[in-house]
Automatic annotation (TrEMBL):
<keyword id="KW-0966">Cell projection</keyword>
<dbReference type="Pfam" id="PF02493">
    <property type="entry name" value="MORN"/>
</dbReference>
<dbReference type="GO" id="GO:0031514">
    <property type="term" value="C:motile cilium"/>
</dbReference>
<dbReference type="InterPro" id="IPR042814">
    <property type="entry name" value="Morn5"/>
</dbReference>
<keyword id="KW-0282">Flagellum</keyword>
<dbReference type="InterPro" id="IPR003409">
    <property type="entry name" value="MORN"/>
</dbReference>
<protein>
    <recommendedName>
        <fullName>MORN repeat-containing protein 5</fullName>
    </recommendedName>
</protein>
<keyword id="KW-0969">Cilium</keyword>
<keyword id="KW-0677">Repeat</keyword>
């Protein structure tokens, strides 16, 4: 079994880097997710005993006193860090400019979803997961979708 400092890549593309003992995560280590998120933790017997998740944009998750997107403040994290953009321009995603959605697909937050194949890929088109019926319905009803025609913001003269 794996022992000592090393790395292990799961079939989903998530990579663990850190200490291993008897084939399990044990000691300091981190999970690097394909979407850019990182979970740094202290592990014991494969179970995290303390840890911190950081989203791809640098936002750190806190399980207590979480103030991000709490119903009163709906700004994206990039808007909190860098300020708001002009009021007559809508910021549709945390990424600015928003990624161009492939034809027939939806932007589901961590990548693109193709409703015909029911596959979610990240923004670099690497496989993330297959969507179940519940996720499929949620994406179809709530996420931005590709349009046949694109329209760009036209500044006022």
């Amino acid at each position: 079994r794996m022992e000592g400092l090393g790395s292990y890549t799961l079939p989903t593309g998530t990579e663990y880097r850190g200490m291993l003992k008897d084939g399990m995560f044990d000691g300091e280590g981190e999970l690097l997710f394909p979407n850019g998120g990182v979970y740094r933790a202290v592990w014991h017997g494969g179970v995290p005993t303390q840890g911190k998740y950081t989203f791809a944009d640098g936002l750190e998750y806190k399980d207590k006193k979480w103030h991000y997107c709490d119903g009163y403040d709906r700004r994206f994290y990039t808007e909190i860090c860098s300020g708001l953009i002009e009021p007559d321009i809508s910021q549709l995603t945390n990424l600015e400019p928003p990624p161009e959605i492939p034809k027939g697909c939806y932007d589901c937050g961590d990548g693109f979803y193709n409703p015909e194949t029911r596959v979610v890929v990240d923004y670099k088109f690497r496989f993330l997961r297959n969507a179940d019926d519940e996720e499929h319905e949620w994406i179809i009803q709530t996420c931005r979708q590709a349009w046949d025609e694109t329209s760009e913001h036209q500044p006022k003269p």
